[in-house]
Amino acid sequence: MVTALAAGRARSDIDVLSRAGLPLADFMAESAATLLGVIPFVAGCFSSTGPATSLISRTYKLGDLLGRNESDVA
Question: pLDDT of 38-71, one tens digit each?
């Protein structure tokens, strides 16, 4: 079970990362590492969306999903 302290720390860490000016892939990797410390997972997928269209503009897969693109829609 995630404690309120651990969740708050992860939220704060991700907030700092969001303001660090990192390239998107680096931000997503660092965020995933932060989340992994609070919520164990074996695979994950982040996506970014275009602010004007809300369409997915990029995905970042990690863990067991990394490199598994056969079911992706092009």
Answer: 998 899 888 889 999 999 888 888 888 888 888 7
Which burial class, exposed, middle or buried, applies to 62 when counting CB atoms under 10 A from its CB (0-12, 13-18, 19+)?
Answer: middle
Q: What is the pTM of this model?
A: 0.74
d(CA 44, CA 59): 10
- Cα of 72 vs its chain's centroid, Å: 18
The pair of structure tokens assigned to 17 is 């990362």
Could you report how far apart the first and last alpha carbons of the chain are, in Å? 38
Task: Compute the Cα dihedral for 25, 39, 47, 31 and give only its sign.
Answer: negative
DSSP 43: E
Could you tell me if 60 and 49 are in contact, meaning their C-beta atoms sit under 8 angstroms apart?
A: no
Q: What would the two tokens of residue 2 be?
A: 């995630």
